Amino acid sequence: MKNNKTKIIAISNQKSSGKTTTAINIGAALAMKGSKVLMIDFDAQESLSNFFGFYGAEKNIAQLLFDVIDKRADINVAEYICHNDENDLDIIPTNLSDMNDLSKIIIAERGKEMVLRRLLTRYDVFSEYDYILIDCNASVDITVDNALTAADYVLIPCWAAPFNYGPLANTIVQIEDIRDELNPELKILGIIATFCERTNNCKMTKQMLFENYPNKICRTTISRTAAADTSLREKAAVFSNSKSNKTAQEYKALADELLDRMK
Ligand SMILES: Nc1ncnc2c1ncn2[C@@H]1O[C@H](COP(=O)(O)OP(=O)(O)OP(=O)(O)O)[C@@H](O)[C@H]1O
Ligand SMILES: [Mg+2]
């Protein structure tokens, strides 16, 4: 059973906007502050799982949801939760083929958008967490609808470039639809300008983000840096105390801003 203390945050937007990198660093930043954090990889690509060392995990979020769909009484949720020492947080990994099967099976369910919410509200183990972060895939599909229906907040990283700015409106429409129809409590925690660099394109896009989404856009922006590239790492950038590590500084500042916004 989820209690009121547990905050569920879905991280959602279009392709390659920095969702997984933001999930990893915000999750780790919250864990560094002493919070108990669970990360759920809800994207068949397995990027978040791979970062934490899981490849094609047998015990994965899709399997857990198959059990919920089958109304099995003997689900041992704890078996699906893995601890990651390196980043001091817990993770439920994903699996490419199981996640693809889930997308097809879930469509036939009554209350098809509610399956993840059913899981997170039904089991006591989830109420032990301060934060549950759900890394979504990049499409407007039923799994993202599930994440948004289960969440208290949605975080929207947006590559500060025109190609990512346009589709942002679609993401917001999807969020508003879910809020109006299924989850009135859902709030946009913030839009985050990511991959920021010194180009005119970026400057213009940032200006549009700040002008058109004045209440939603986070003051903290994330620069495009080699340190942010998670592909070859196992530990989140935020663990670096180096003043020269811009990514660490920015994601720590972003975590503080988000905590402020959740007050
Ligand atoms: N600020 C940044 N600077 C440089 N590289 C970054 C930055 N943020 C993310 N990356 C890299 O860019 C790629 C895409 O980022 P990420 O995986 O976080 O985006 P995503 O929105 O999760 O993508 P997808 O839609 O495929 O799930 C990754 O290789 C990541 O390591
Ligand atoms: Mg991703």
Bound molecules: adenosine-5'-triphosphate, magnesium ion
- Biggest sheet, spatial arrangement of strands: 3-4-2-5-1-6-7
Q: What are the low-pLDDT stretches, counting only 5+ consecutive residues below 50?
A: none
Mean pLDDT: 95
Number of strands: 7
Estimated radius of gyration: 17 Å
> Strand content of the residues, in percent?
5-15%
Largest sheet: 7 strands, mixed
Percent helix: 25-40%
| Net shape | globular
What is the terminal separation in angstroms?
A: 22 Å
Structural class: alpha/beta
Q: In sequence order, what are the helices and strands, one letter per element?
A: EHEHHEEHHEHEHEHH
The total count of helices amounts to 9
Task: Summarize the topology.
Elements: E1 7-11, H1 19-32, E2 37-42, H2 47-51, H3 61-69, E3 82-84, E4 89-92, H4 96-106, H5 115-122, E5 131-136, H6 142-150, E6 153-159, H7 162-181, E7 187-194, H8 200-212, H9 246-261
Parallel strand pairs: 1-5, 1-6, 2-4, 2-5, 6-7
Antiparallel strand pairs: 3-4
Observed structural traits:
binds magnesium ion; seven-stranded mixed β-sheet; binds adenosine-5'-triphosphate; 263 residues
Describe the overall structure.
- With 263 residues, the protein is an alpha/beta fold.
- The protein has helices at residues 19-32, 47-51, 61-69, 96-106, 115-122, 142-150, 162-181, 200-212, 246-261; strands spanning 7-11, 37-42, 82-84, 89-92, 131-136, 153-159, 187-194.
- A 7-stranded mixed beta sheet has the order 3-4-2-5-1-6-7, sandwiched between helices.
- α3 runs parallel beside α4, α3 crosses α5 (115-122) and α5 (115-122) runs parallel beside α6.
- The two termini are 22 Å apart.
- The protein binds adenosine-5'-triphosphate and magnesium ion.
- The site of adenosine-5'-triphosphate has 20 residues, from α1.
